[in-house]
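writing this on my phone so excuse typos. first protein, seq and then structure
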Amino acid sequence: MGAKKKIILTILLLINIATMFLSWFGGARKIQEVRGTIVLLHPITLIAIGLFLIGLWYPFNKKVSKWICVGSITGIIAVKIYFFFFWHYMTVTGTVSIKESINLTYPEFYLGLGISTLILAISLFMKDNNQKRVNKK
């Protein structure tokens, strides 16, 4: 991975982490809200962030580095989706319902999920500038 790509992914990861300090879920703003820090403080998320940074900045083989990054950001997305479906189960509704999940989720959650998905897409599909190009004649 090129240095430019690493810097872009690191900045996006920091923005992603910053969105976790916003209110993500709740029934009423400023009264009954849950911040995204419940996801940030989850052990899987913490391990995934560490693995992402190690995979990104440690000089592994390009393929190994790519798949460590992809796997770790997938783990973060999975934890976000898990909390999307189940955060209200124990505290508010007592049921698992996609309708309740959508109704009780603030736009900040979708922003964080979108940034995570963007990081995943960049990790998967952005090609390195250092790859050899075949000249077609």
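second protein below, same order as before
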Amino acid sequence: MSMSGASPEPFLERWIERQYRDSASAMLRSFSAIDLVKSRPGFGTQVRAAKGSIIASPVLGAYDPDPDYFFHWFRDSAVVIESLRLLYEDGSIGDEAIAHLRDFAAFNLSLNTLDGRRLVDDKSWRGKAAADFVKFLRDDEDLAQAHGEAVVGETRVNPDGTLDISKWARPQHDGPPLRALALLGWVSAHRLDDRLAADLAALITGDLDFTMRHWRTPSYDIWEEERGLHYYTLRVSAAALEQGAAWLRSRNEHEFALACATESAAIRTLLDGYWLEDAQHFRSRVLSSGGRSDKELDIAIILSAIHGSDGAQAHSVHDGRMQSTFAQLEALFDRLYAINRGRPAGQGVAMGRYEGDVYYSGGAYFFSTLGAAEFCFKAARGSPKAQGWIERGDAFLQMVRAYTGAQGELSEQFDQNSGEQTSAKHLAWSYAALISTVAARRAALAAR
């Protein structure tokens, strides 16, 4: 899109409002996509999405070249259900949102009955896999651990409510605190009927209990690549436990509330140790191997500040250390990506995940660039430099605008060299990120 001629601001405003509507519509296609059936002939399975599931992408890829994202990820679905609340609160969607929330709660509660030991006992499913796919099947030892509370650490499940039988990065512990945070937003802001409120309370209580007892246990990072203790997971865990403690106190569950608050404080103390003074940024991970990762400067740190917003100063968008980390990432991707060279005035940096990313185009990512914009808009709230932060956020939106599809399409990535959309098409997380970013922008403008 050309940015020449008249001031781009009126055009940006119109684009934001149109893209917000388009993103809402597109994101909702991932909810309860019961008309979609995914065949995985290599695994000998066929999966029909169940009501209440949220698929990461409704495009039925098979790494041909689109990836197979026909799964209900605990992390992605939490981010999406949070953006559904934002749509509901601004009137973009009516009671349909409550119906989706009710189905989401029922689906997630049903997952508590999953038990991988049944698949260990009945091995008939293994014989359905093609010979060249057997190597991708989970082994019995792995499956035997998938029952009870461990299910929420599974990273993802099939959207028909069955266990994923493929080898994957497990466990992953960001899903429970993210789901707790999203559902706490719903129960804290809205009066819900007794049945729905009880279902959400059951999920929240389980997620808080899991988070409180497992945050010290190494798991895989947000990108499902390295095992260790990760800044992102720890930061959203601290926020969930802190907000959960307030909710529990309102329910007179004071002992549980105290335990959550105590663990939240312990996490924050640990996170202070992730600051690298020489590098002037937070490190994204401490590996279980004891070695140093080359992914320590990671956009996941910035995403943790927006996904884990809880009003605290430390480890928030207002923390000087977090802002320094943000500046380091902005400079990194400005240097790395050809798409950032020679960009028009007023157009911000296309952001990725970390240096050396090799997944598909290796970035840029829509949710990373939108996350940078949302960071700026949230940093504007209460800041004496609010206008500068808003303008900085708008610049990131201009970058997103330049590579959004003609019909508002947002994939997972837009190529760091060509800008062509790549990886998963119609990624629900990308649309959710657009919605939460616009909501943060509106709040920042209103607070000036």
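The chain is about 50% helix and 5% strand. thats all i got for now
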